[in-house]
Design brief:
The protein is an alpha/beta fold. The protein has 3 helices and 16 strands. 30% of the residues are buried.
């Protein structure tokens, strides 16, 4: 019964997050789904966070000061290739972790695939498809995302 209520809460909150009334609305509702989202993080409108019916919310960690543009997809579920080799189809999915470290910036329409870490203050260009970890202070773009440059932070 508890699982069913969590699924329902996740569906309602994620739907409310997709259609914002204010710029703070999406982040508020994604937190209500149970995802770990740090202080001053900002999630744009019409984003998709895909974790098994919002039950494996601990698989997504968004640290403080992260900025996520509109229509970004963060996906934590995947199918093992062995299932296709063995059964000729997928029978179940497995949960993996996605971490977005402090101060990272994710451009509009980017897709973050399962088992990826976006490093501290890294930048993911708009429309990029991130299939591998992004090191800290690195700019990536493209499909699949490739390193464009290293950031030189002068403080």
């Amino acid at each position: 019964m508890k699982q069913i209520l969590r699924k329902i809460r996740g569906k309602i909150c994620s739907t409310l997050a997709k259609y914002p009334v204010t710029h703070k609305w999406p982040t508020y509702w994604w937190r209500k789904c149970g995802y770990s989202i740090g202080k001053n993080a900002s999630i744009g409108p019409d984003c998709l966070i895909w974790a098994w019916h919002h039950l494996d919310t601990d698989n997504i960690i968004i640290e403080e000061d992260v900025s996520i543009g509109p229509r970004v997809m963060i996906i934590t579920r995947t199918h093992p290739i062995t299932q296709i080799e063995t059964y000729g189809k997928t029978k179940s999915s497995i949960g993996t972790k996605v971490e977005i470290k402090r101060g990272a910036w994710i451009g509009a329409g980017a897709i973050i695939l399962p088992n990826v870490t976006i490093g501290e203050r890294a930048v993911v260009g708009a429309g990029a498809v991130v299939t591998k970890d992004v090191p800290p202070y690195t700019v990536v773009a493209g499909v699949p995302a490739k390193e464009i440059k290293k950031l030189d932070l002068k403080r």
